[in-house]
Amino acid sequence: MRSYSLIAPAKINLYLEIIGDRADGFHELAMVLQSISLSDRVTINPIGIDAITIRCNDPTIPSDRTNLAYRAAALMVDQFPDMMARHGGIEIDIHKQIPAAAGLAGGSTDAAAVFVGLDLMWDLGLTQGELQTFAAQIGSDVPFCISGGTALATGRGEVLSPLMNLDHLYVVLAKYKNLAISTPWAYKTYRQQFGHTYVSAPQDLQSRHDRVHSGSMVSAIVKRDGAKIGRLLHNDLEKVALPEYPQIQALRDAFAAQNVLGTMMSGSGPTVFALVANQTEADRVLGAVRGQMADPDLAFWTAQFVPNGIHLA
Ligand code: C5P
After folding, report:
1. Are residues 131 and 182 in the same domain?
2. Is the pTM of this model over 0.85?
3. Looking at the annotation, which residues are catalytic?
4. Ligand 1: centre distance to CA 148 (Å)
């Protein structure tokens, strides 16, 4: 039994449309998801005791069942009970760089790495589709985090169609260190305020999905047209997060004033990103906005779009 070290990229949303309610209590969505080079490193080690343990360089990250990486390992142990008996337990060592509760799928991508790592460590030979079916039980973004790249995501977010590689584009990301938004809060508040706009009839759901599939964002991605992608960024959850958190709106305004291709909150927030054409632009925009906001509570990163999800380090 050897250890496996995996790179687990963060994701941003280029598009997030809330279409309606689903019978399972989740929302029917149409999203475009993009992996970025900001990533965690997840190492799966075999250990001599029959247990799942989590180690993390960030002491604020929980090491119990509330950690999605733990839940991914527990699900795999349930599915393949012989493996723990034969090979012993699992230590998951997470080197975190992706901020938590940030709208960047940090917890989901660590869980995705656990699925891929255990498939390798136990030599199960599962297909990507089989891993993604397990992954969907842990969270809506986990299947995407396994395959990564650029993808259209529908259903709860787990029905994926790969799109054109956009690795020529870059982002500047900014997040208030002490601001975290709960995803259930964002969706619940959206339902309270916009539930009257939801569609539920199967033919209406289908036509909304078709509109996104054949819509201008997908065509801008197929053409790898960064300027057009920037103009078409869309996230319905901004409608609840921006009025509640004026500091997110202020960050967005600061990026917009920098002549970037586009700017938006990612997922349920609170991270805001600015889309730019190259690393030089990313460094310029980061310097300008950091100087202007001059707030020690603000953290910044630059990242490149990447064409893959979980991969060996
Ligand atoms: O699937 P995940 O655990 O990431 O979802 C977190 C929460 O976000 C859910 O409990 C739900 O409140 C909301 N959500 C939703 N519809 C989706 C995805 C998430 O309502 N498609």
Report:
1. no
2. yes
3. 11, 141
4. 19
